[in-house]
Amino acid sequence: MSSTLSLRHSSEPSWLSLFRPVLMASLRKVFAYGGLSNLLALAPSVYMLEVYGRVVTSRSGLTLVMMTVLIIAVYAWMEVIDWVRESWLQTLANKLELQLSPRIWKMTLQAQLTGPAPVQASLADVQQLRSFLTSPATLALVDLPFAVVVILIIFAIHIWLGVASVLAAAVLGVVTYITHQRVHHPMDHAQQAAQASQILASSLLRQSESVLAMGMQDHAQRLWQERQDVFLDLQAQASQGAGWGSAMSRFIQVLQGSLLLGLGCWLTLMDLIPAHGGMMVVASILGAKALSPITQLIMHSRTLEQAWASWQRLDSFLGPAKKEIAPMPMPAPKGLLSGANLSLRSPDGQAELLKGVQFRIEPGQLLAVLGPSGAGKTSLSRMLVGIWPPATGKVRLDGVDIHAWDRAEIGPHIGYLPQNVELFEGTLALNIARFQQPDQNLLDEVITATGLQGWVSGLPLGLNTPLGVDGHALSGGMRQRVGLARALYGWPRLVVLDEPNAHLDELGEAQLTQSLAIAKARSCTVVLITHRTAVLSLADQLMVLRDGQMQACGPRDEVIAALQRAMQQPRSAAGVAP
């Protein structure tokens, strides 16, 4: 909340404020047409007065027919106006999504990589605002000022009828407040409990093999059920509070109509309003009309509250409006990768992950990175592809800071295979082609280079085979090989592979060696992070990491010789023959 307030008191307007002119322009049109709609809504009361005051006394059938035709036309026109208003709000909701969703998508994706805290605003907030704009709550909010006009008309009929209407509106206001108190806190806690339950369920389902293999299913189900019961109990409390508010508001609205009718009858008997009885019926109808927007707001108060919370989260998340400068187009890189005096800290800045890293890799060379677990190899891979910025120094591709390079521009020139292979729901061809329109020649080249042609030809649908969510149908080794094909698709200038042989057998590792040789022949600069030494025969350079520090880096044979000498020195000092 403090970040939201700071944005609003800042001299810089928030990014979300750029949408406000569009929002207000649409709402002004909806409000203007709402005035016309609410004016026409008085037509039934006028019709009733005319029937009582003119038709009944004159006994003119023609007058009745003409007035009936007129009221039917008014009803039709009211429906057209309401349809237009709803269409404008639907268009406004579409504009909101088109303007916000692409930016939030990019910011959320970036925040997932670099932010230590969970993202508080998401595309779900946009959907919440969109649902609110197209809900009856928005029209009720816009129509609320007209309720005041209707009450003034009731006052014009008689002051006591107006007082009764104001009292009914005040009671509804109290009901609204009580309902908010009874719903707000249980619903907030219910949402938190539901999120915790969903996170636990997703975690347990991802580990289904371990859960079933070790007989933990009953304990896991009981643990999930405990959290689910908390959610259900809180949701029931909130539903009971909302149900009480809806029931009370309907009761007051119905009761008000009867009380206004009774009060109007008493005033008629006292000769304080016209004696023909039409005015007391009109007052009853107008009273219900005045309370209608308030009742709608009570029924949709939770929607209104959620929409406001979503707007605040988005306002804080998107930050101040800054003019985006289009990046300068850069020539396609050739693959010269370099870095000097590089250090890297964790995204929260608390831990130092790497320090003292430097290298220079020429196009077509392969740098193999060795080191024990926890040495910082994966952190190095993320820094090399520009996901994590270094704390000191620059990773440069052809002399340009790779982290500052526009991702859409540099992305096709980078191939990346993370330790945890991430495949997406879609066909095999789309996964390899990075969800671009697949180029058949490039697909054939990379499938041949990675040795997948036999496997692909055995699939019933070939490259059009759906991989399912996260590629769950594939084995660990096959996922890695598909991920390798994606990394090499288009033969990017820089290829970073993090443990690409972790799940491969001897045949798969031999094919990996062949794939790396082809990539080098195509002048791809390759950084290979591995625990195994079978692929070192292709390495031109070798880097050794330990505890986040670079122990050695240089030509492969020189580094190996230096490591052997370093290992022999302790043995010689202890008097052990080499």
Strand-helix topology:
Elements: H1 2-9, H2 20-40, H3 43-58, H4 61-114, H5 123-133, H6 136-157, H7 159-206, H8 208-213, H9 217-269, H10 278-299, H11 301-318, E1 337-345, E2 352-361, E3 366-370, H12 377-384, E4 395-397, E5 400-401, H13 407-410, E6 414-417, H14 428-432, H15 440-449, H16 453-457, H17 476-488, E7 494-498, H18 506-521, E8 525-529, E9 541-546, E10 549-555, H19 556-573
Parallel strand pairs: 3-8, 3-9, 6-7, 7-8
Antiparallel strand pairs: 1-2, 1-4, 4-5, 9-10
Please describe what this structure looks like:
The structure is a single chain. The protein is α/β, with parallel strands linked by helices and about 575 residues long. Helices cover about 60% and strands about 10% of the residues. The chain folds into three domains: about 150 residues, no CATH class; about 150 residues, ABC transporter type 1, transmembrane domain (ABC transporter transmembrane region fold, Up-down Bundle); about 240 residues, P-loop containing nucleotide triphosphate hydrolases (Rossmann fold). α2 runs antiparallel to α4 and α7 packs antiparallel against α9. The chain is elongated and about 115 Å long. The longest helix has about 55 residues. The relative contact order is 0.08. The protein contains 19 helices and ten strands. It has a six-stranded mixed sheet, sandwiched between helices. A four-stranded antiparallel sheet has the order 2-1-4-5, covered by helices on one side.
Keywords:
alpha/beta; 3 domains; 62% helix; Rossmann fold; 19 helices; ABC transporter transmembrane region fold; 578 residues; six-stranded mixed beta sheet; 10 strands
